Amino acid sequence: MKPSLLIYVHGFNSSPGSLKASLMAKYCAEHRPDIRVEIPQLPNFPEQAAYQLKQLVEEHQNDYRIGLAGSSLGGYFCTWLNAHYALPAVLINPAVKPYELLVDFLGVQINPYTHESYVLNDTHIDDLKVIDVETLTNPDNIWVLLQTGDETLDYRQAEKKYQSAHLTIESGGDHGFVDFERYPERIIQFLNL
Fold it and tell me: Fewer CB within 10 A of the end CB, N or C, for the chain?
């Protein structure tokens, strides 16, 4: 059997050092050291980020069983990868229409993790629209974790979009997903890694 690879995809203005990414890496290191964990620092621009993720999957898909996990904008990217490669994916408070949400963020941005400054413009919004997955092609291998207290995204958008997938909706919480440490073991089981 092929070895396992977990690709964790961070969200907008985030990094591999985010709490959920760190919790997934820590869980695997302590309980499943057989799983290779990749948490790439994505470029700030959607087209470049999508290309990097595509390259990562294509580089390893013949040698590894790959599972995806992603939060917020990372969940949006994981949905796109799931549609193209039929890889199992767990999405945590995923962005459903980031091309609408990020219009409010056009202009200069500073990533609080990397301290990198960059300019978000209309081209980047269009790039997000290009990779939008309107209809899920592999809903059986998608698990979506939502908290209704998400202050950044309306969880009902994800509830509607992913209604044919596996859904877990918790009352309260926030965009960071409160008490996420309850989930790494179950995420690895769902991804069959």
Answer: N
**Which H helix or E strand runs over 144?**
strand 142-147
The dihedral of CA 29, 17, 51, 100: what is its sign?
positive
Task: Using alpha carbons, select from 133, 141, 121, 134 the residue that is nearest to residue 189.
Answer: 141
Please state the pTM of the whole predicted model. Answer: 0.96
Adjacent-strand bridge partners of 68: 7, 89
Interval 22-57: pLDDT, tens: 999 999 999 999 999 999 999 999 999 999 999 999
Residues of the chain with pLDDT under 50: none
By residue count, the chain amounts to 193
Looking at residue 7, what is its pLDDT? 98
Structure tokens at 99: 């091309």
Could you tell me which of 159, 7, 137, 156 has the C-alpha nearest to residue 71? 7
What span, in angstroms and rounded, lies between the C-alpha atoms of 160 and 157?
A: 5
Look at domain 4-191 and name its CATH class. alpha beta
Give the number of C-alpha atoms closer than 13 A to the C-alpha of residue 8, restricted to the C-beta side.
26
Per DSSP, 105 falls in state G
